[in-house]
Write a structure and sequence with these properties.
single chain; mainly alpha
């Protein structure tokens, strides 16, 4: 399915209009649905969490920069320090392989978890209210599947 850049921007705009607290609730709800599936698929609680963190890190690194608000949001969401979030993003932003891995996870879960993965990703990208061209391309890549 091919999705237009305009459709991606419209989708992200819906999330951009939400407050910090609303985005936190949406992301936490999505994470609570995603994590058990990731754990079941990987056969491990730790590996399931790694999948979730990979998705978060790749989403945050998609535009090549991490705002203080993005770091705070993920820190509040996961209960980890903002320094840990900074380290995660730094390790991921230079490696485009992660985007391909996340895209494969998204495609593999397309029917079971696509809505939750998409909501989760959009919350992370929309939190700083700044939609970057690279973020739009990242979401478009996730949504373009056959």
């Amino acid at each position: 399915m091919e999705i237009s850049k305009k459709q991606v921007i419209q989708l992200l705009e819906v999330f951009r209009q939400q407050s910090y607290d609303e985005l936190l609730v949406i992301a936490a709800t999505s994470a609570s649905k995603l994590l058990p599936v990731f754990q079941r698929v990987t056969g491990s609680t730790q590996e399931g969490m790694t999948c979730l963190i990979l998705f978060i890190g790749t989403s945050l690194a998609s535009d090549g920069k991490l705002s203080e608000l993005e770091a705070k949001f993920v820190s509040d969401l996961l209960g980890v320090s903002e320094n840990q979030i900074n380290t995660l993003v730094e390790s991921m932003k230079e490696n485009t392989t992660y985007v391909d891995v996340v895209d494969k996870i998204f495609d593999a879960c397309m029917y079971e978890l696509a809505d939750e993965l998409l909501k989760f990703c959009c919350c992370i990208l929309a939190i700083d209210k700044d939609l970057d061209e690279k973020e739009v391309r990242f979401v478009k890549k996730l949504l373009d599947y056959e």
